[in-house]
Every structure is written in structure tokens, then in C-alpha cells.
Amino acid sequence: MSNGANALIRTLVDAGITTCFTNPGTSEMHFVAALDTVPEMRAVLALFEGVATGAADGYGRMADKPAATLLHLGCGLGNGLANLHNARKGRVPILNIVGDHATHHVQYDAQLQSDIETVARNVSSWVRTAQSTATLCQDAVDAIEACMGPPGQVATLILPADVSWGEGGVPMAPLQLAPPSAAEDATVAAIALALQGEGKKAILLGGKALRAPALMAVARIAAKTGAKLFAKVFPTRIERGAGLPPVERIAYLAELASVQLTGLDHLILVDAKAPVSFFAYPGKKSYQVPDGCQLHTLASFTQDVLGSLDKLSKAVGADQSAPVLQPLKRPGRPRGKFTADKVCKAIGELMPDNAIIVDEAQTSGIMLAMYTAGAPRHDVLTLTGGAIGQGLPNAVGAAIACPQRKVIALVGDGSAMYTIQALWTMAREKLDVISIIFNNRSYAILKVELQRVGAVGAGDMARAQLDLRNPPIDFVRLGEGMGVASRRATTTEEFLAAFEHALRTPGPHLIEAIVPPTLAGLKLRVLPHVLQSLAKLPLPMARALKRAIAP
User: pLDDT tens, 8-32?
Assistant: First the structure.
């Protein structure tokens, strides 16, 4: 017999959950003490709950299994909600262990007492408060089953202090989860008929459909049927680069996405939902599927993606088709005036084989996909839920999940400040992460949105809410203060030198890239007019403009 905390950790480890990102408080001290009794569990301290949850997200994306988080009461869980929201939208498995007051203490409504279950339900598909030490490990097994899915989900197990310290905990063996089923024969036959018929067809990929085996299968289908391949706007994880099929991501800007999808007669969804615009805009449609386009679902989030694609490949006779693959092609070393685009070009030219890119660059990263298309094979993790502050914590989790791979995190200056404490965890754990912070001294994406939504009367006070120039943020001093080797680049040559040094030197590095906003001045002012004109232009011209704005 052991106490609840010890039995709980042993149950997690036996189920394959061997990493826990922690930010504990008093109610979690028995769990913390029990870590020494189960050495297979790696505990990684974060200085802010949003780092712990974002790191668990990055870990889950790359390890294809859950990490745990250890959070302190409802307030601690609340501090981690933004990155749990991103994980929920990305269907990433995470198991939150949230400490609570002892059951007999709840009646006193102490200072930190809150309704944890209500907080958790905002981001969790499964929530339970453990009622006793005897049943705690069964609760844990149920939570693991829920977060493993399919699809992957956030599960939150609330652990009262007395359940944690109570004696009589008995570890439980993990469940054997049934494999997901492939698409039904009738569904496959109907989609095969649509793909082999008249009209323009496209296949929209998300989730597991953007991994290499599924990409090769769907590329053979595309080669046989002429279907266009798209990826969702913000994929959880996409494998790309030389030797893999190229897939065009749906654009963030709804007007550009409309150009991509216009004219389709059939759109097949594979581990993805129908595309919608990120926000509502005056006079614009939210639902992006073209009028008259027939929507088909080959594989839902709960189904076997690769098995479904294999069945469809056989149905259309594509098994022997040669997929179109991206050739190895570096963009060349950047030269001249230093801009965000030059940073993206340098990454495409210099990035090593099998790198992991965490992309939270938004406007500064517009050219990243183009410059890295022919780079050596790599993974890209993106901002699935749109809640900024994901990039640096995701890099922490990805580096712990894949310690032999170089992680490159691209982050804006505004979003970096949401979870800047992740740098400290990188230094403490000696993680091989290069954090590139685009310092354009503004919330540049919001300047674009201010133009697009047609907000009236925006003057100096409004623009000041999007400006980060006064006082300027010094990321080199912030990085050094948290133990990360940090350099500032103000020229293309300085950036190349800093990046090459970071690539050949293990451990965490920060490069502060002082760049102008990608969209500013005349470009920013004319952008809404250009976007509005797209629907009136001939489609070839509209698509050429789309490629110029967002390749």
C-alpha cells in the first residue's frame, strides 16, 4: 500500500505518461514528494502555468502521447487556460492534475478556494474530482483513456490534498485501447465516385492526415484523380520538406482563402472540419466552402486516417500512381536590407535535417512556408487555437519529446512576452532550442485586423494600443537574465552569424531580430482594398495576387 500521490504517479508511468510539467503549490506537495519514489517520471518545472500547459501541448504533438501537468488549484489552472485552449483545438492529448484543498477544508471557503471543475470545463472534454484514495487510480485510468482518444483531448483530474496524502492507494494497469476504425465502404465508394467524376476537387487535410504515411497515400490519390491538396490554416503538426508531397495551407485571411477554394465542386475532409474564417468581418461570409460545393467526410477525428486513405486509394486505382514530391531546393543565403523575410530565407537555407519548427511568427513568418518548402524534411507546429503565447512553451515540450532534434521557435515580440518564462525552463533543462524573436515593436497582426474590420475613428489612442516601442523591450537582457545565450541581430549578416552559431552549438539560444513590420505604411493601407478587390478579379489574376501576398 502507498499513499494516493505515489500510486497515482505509478499508474501514470505504467500507462506511458513519463513527463510532467509542473508549477505546484501547497496542495500538491505530496505529489511533489512522491516524484522521488517513481524515478521514471521526469518532472519539468515551469515558472508560469501557461508554460507548463504549452509545453505539455508541444510534447503531445511530437511524442503522440500525453504529458501530464501539475497545477495549483483553480487559479493555477486558470493561468494555463490559453495554451490548453490551443491544445484542445489541436486535439492534443494532455492530462492535467490539479490540486485542490482537502475535502474537509472546502467548507471554509479559504482564500484560494474556487470552482475548479467550472474552470476546467472551458478546455477539457473530461473532468472529475477524485473522491477517495481508494478510487483515485481508477479515476486516473479513466482520464488517460479520455485524453488518448481518438481524438486526443484535454482531461483534467482534480486531486484533493487528503486524497493525495491518504494511505491505501493501489496503482492500476492501463487499459488496452481499441484501434479506431476506417471509413465505411459506402463512404469510400461515394467519395471515389466524386473524385473520378467531373468538376474540380480538393482534399482538405488536418490532424494525422498531415503525417508522412498519410501524405504519401493522399498524394497518390491526388496524382490519380487531379484533386488539389490543402491543409487546414493552423495544423497541429505537419511534416514537410524535400521528399514529401507539397500541401498548400489554407490562408489565414478569409479573402485569400476564398481565392484558393473558389470554383470547387467537391471538397473531401480528412481529419479536418469545413473551413471557416477566423473572425467575422462586416459584409463577408464566415463559412468558406463555396456555394454549390459538395462536402464529403472521408475520415472524422475519431477514425483511422491512414486506413481510410488506403481504402480510398484502392477504390480510385491509385496504389501504383507516382505522387508528386517536393525536390530538395534551398533558397540561397539572404543578402541586403534586414527584414523578417530574410530571416525566413536564412532558415530555409541553413536549417538542418529533421528540425522541428514552432511557428508563432504570424505576420513576420508570411514567407516561411515558401522558403522552407524544399528544405530537408522537418515538422512544423502552428498556433492551432489562435491564443498567442504558445510558441516558446511548445518549443520546450517538443525539445523534451525529441531530444535529438533541433527545435527552432519563431515568435513575435508581443506573443513572446506572454510566456517569456519558458526561456528559464529551456536553460534549466539544457534544451536544444533556438528562439528567434521578431522584434518589430508592435502587435503587427492587430494592425492588419484594425484595417480589415473597418473600425471607424482609429486615431493616436487606438494605434497606441498596438504599439510596443515605448519603452523598447530588450530580449537579449531578458534571455541572458534567464540563463539563455542571447544575441541581437540588426543586419542580415549579424543574423546569419548568430543563427549559424546557434545551429552548431547545443543548448538554448535566443536571437532577437530587429526587423520592420512586414506589413506597414502603404502596404498596410492598401491591403484591405486589395483583399476586397479579389472577388471581382479574374481567378488567375486573383490567385497570382494571393501568391504575392501570402505564398
Answer: 999 999 999 999 999 999 999 999 9
pLDDT tens digits along 229-264: 999 999 999 999 999 999 999 999 888 999 999 999
- For the chain, what is the domain count? 3
Residue 453 Cα distances to 283, 387, 461, 548, angstroms: 10, 19, 18, 22
Kindly state the helix (H) or strand (E) to which residue 30 belongs, with its residue range.
helix 29-34
- Asked, as a colleague might, if the bond just before 517 is cis with ω within 30 of 0, I would say no
Q: Which domain holds residue 58?
A: 2-169
| 114 located within any domain | yes
Same domain, yes or no: 201 and 288 = yes
Pair (293, 410) in one structural domain: no
Nearest to 219 by CA among 79, 325, 343: 325
Rounded distance between C-alpha atoms, residue 400 and residue 420, angstroms = 18
Identify the three-state secondary structure at position 374. coil
For residues 387 and 102, what is the distance between their CA atoms, to the nearest angstrom?
33
Q: Is the pLDDT of residue 416 over 80?
A: yes
Q: Is residue 37 part of a domain?
A: yes
Q: What is the predicted pLDDT for the residue at 469?
A: 79
Read off the pLDDT of residues 119-128 as tens digits, 9 standing for 90 and up. Answer: 999 999 999 9
Angle, vertex CA 251, rays to CA 183 and CA 229, nearest 5: 35
For residue 238, the cross-strand partners are 380
Each residue of 151-172: b (16+ CB within 10 Å) or e? Answer: bbbbbbbbbbbbbbbbeebbbb
Cα 321 off chain centre by:
32
Cα separation, 326 vs 244, in Å, equals: 6
Give, as one character, the DSSP assignment of residue 220.
H
At residue 172, the pLDDT reads 94
Percent of the chain with pLDDT over 70: 97
Helix-strand-coil split of the chain, %, nearest 5:
45, 20, 40
Long-range contacts of 31-37 (CB under 8 A, 24+ apart): 31/5, 31/70, 31/97, 31/99, 31/159, 31/164, 32/70, 33/5, 34/3, 34/5, 34/6, 34/8, 34/9, 35/9, 37/2, 37/6, 37/9
Judgement on whether residues 265 and 212 belong to the same structural domain of the protein: yes
Q: What CATH number is given to the structural domain containing 199?
A: 3.40.50.1220
Taking the C-alpha atoms of residue 378 and residue 356, their distance in angstroms, rounded to an integer, is: 6
CB atoms under 10 Å from CB of 2, counted, come to: 18
- pLDDT above 90: percentage of residues in the chain: 82
Q: Is residue 366 a part of any domain in this protein?
A: yes
- Model pTM score: 0.95
Q: Is the pLDDT of residue 467 over 80?
A: no
H helix or E strand, kind and range, residue 42: strand 42-45
